[in-house]
Amino acid sequence: MTNFVSDSLIAAYQKIDTSTIGHLTEQGYLVGIKPIQDCNQSLAGRVVTVRLNSDNTDMINEALRLAHTKDVLCIDAQILGNKACWGALRTCAAIFEQLSAVIVLGKVTDSKALKQLGFPVFASDISALTTHKSIGEQGEINCCLKYQTDDNNTVTINSGDVAVMDNDGVFILPLPVAESLIKDCQQKQQKDDAKLQLFMDAYKNNELDQIIKKLKADK
């Protein structure tokens, strides 16, 4: 059974930059996972996990059918190495199922088509190598994933976690962590947005010296 994530919590994180979260915690940051096309707004959603245990990727199709509207599919494709398990046609299916985004812990293909489709896809890289129809060991849905980052830390990912994504990367937060962080995130986001707006207004009005002095005094 997965965690219940409220619509209000998801809506709140859709207004939070990942860099804001990164000022408050390192937990759940997926090092090396980046958007395949520009993602200039914050996205958030409830995670549904899929793990591939071989080059048999049929379980991804099953997960697409089972996922709910606005869910975020997180696929552990690390076992595939340089082969991609996700491309244009599966992106079309994700759009049809009205998912919020897809995260691939591994590589994707069809990068030109993915950019044309405009659906948010996050992955470690792009590859022209892909999987073929296979009778290998089937994957699993709603399982616990382990993603090892470059600094030898391991991020644990479960269905029911909260994914927050934008152009700077991806955080996946366990529900209790997401709930406990949101107020601090909102306060920091509001404060930083206000400072940036102040700076931009001053820049337009040639008043930078005064504003920089004020910002330094507020530190």
TrEMBL record:
The keyword Magnesium applies. Coiled coil: none annotated. SUPFAM superfamilies: RraA-like. Keywords: Magnesium, Metal-binding. Mg(2+) binds at D110. InterPro entries: RraA/RraA-like, RraA/RraA-like_sf. The keyword Amino-acid biosynthesis does not apply. Its cofactor is Mg(2+); a divalent metal cation. Transmembrane segments: none annotated. One of its GO terms (molecular function) is metal ion binding. This is Putative 4-hydroxy-4-methyl-2-oxoglutarate aldolase. It comes from Psychrobacter phenylpyruvicus.
